[in-house]
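Message: A physicist's question: would you kindly supply an amino acid chain plus fold tokens?
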Amino acid sequence: MFGTFGTVFAPILVSSMERDRKLPLIPLTFAPRATAALDPDDLFDDPTYSTDGPLSDQWGRRVKSLRISVTDRCNFRCVYCMPEEGLDWLPKDKILSYEELARLTRILVGMGVENVRLTGGEPLVRRDLPVLVRMLSGIPGLRSLSLTTNGYFLKELAGDLAAAGLTRINVSLDTLQRDKFHEITRRDCLERVLEGLAECERYPSLRPIKVNAVAVRGFTEEEIPAFAALARRKPYLVRFIEYMPIDGDAAWTRDRVLTGGEILGEMRKLYPLEAIPVDDPAQTSRDFRFADGAGTVGFINPVSEPFCEACDRIRLTADGQIRTCLFSVTETDVRGPMRAGADDAEVAEVLRRAVWRKELKHHINDPGFVRASRSMSQIGG
């Protein structure tokens, strides 16, 4: 079974001193990345386009959620995300400062964005991340501020993040077995991640605590009972996310996708489950509670059950590019206008026009599908 991910590498222990460690680089080939440079005089022919009102796209979808990648670097090397050697990291002068991130967030919240999630790479490898959390949490109108992390640094930083105003946390964890954890992350530190999760339990403001497992055929099936047990004994919402074609090695194939429906069927053989009604149509997870009330599990099925019609998300990369879909092959540059002196109204117009062009859907299930122009770690999950 472990052969699914190739050679098992010797254990590699990662310390916090490695956060800025330079690693060998490896070039990757994706679809050519196109950056949209929006001319201020560029006018839309569509008469329904408006320069005011809530942020929305040409399909009538309101955009309320923003995912901010604060870095493309990561201290793990998950096999479905990036090569063992790492990637060609962004130079520091290309990465948005905390002040620039706060400015963009403030502008977008003023346009109707309500939910912000900080991602990476691994966001906690960026120094002083609680400082950014505090800057963002004070923005009037922001309803939710969350973080997606691999959990490695949570034991030390969970308290600071909670104190700074973080309200939700997602921890990526694909297995509860040490040897399989090492194989998939190329790191031997499962216990440290579990300790970080336990540390989060100490802070009631960090709720819900979500555990996200990427579901890969030939790897995840035997994890189902253990994750069900974890959801029943801990205050965690355990969610399975279908494996998507956005890996750094470009190794994704459809036959490796273990669907959410299949996992739900297996879990129902273990425990009775009851569907939880969905209040928000933009919610990506189909959640179920155990019939006896002991815990919750969820399923995010972008491959087998796309939810594009209700998508309310855009992404901001660490180097200041707006991506309106995880699988976009084009981006809109906002770093350039900001650093060239654009005022808030001008930046807002760049953002509004980028969102207006948001794709109707991804094309994973269509003939001729073209992979995204960056890997997941470069985009932000």
Summary: The chain is about 25% helix and 15% strand. Residues 23-379 form a domain with the TIM Barrel fold (CATH 3.20.20.70). Residues 1-33, 36-41 have pLDDT under 50 and may be disordered. The chain has one domain: 23-379.
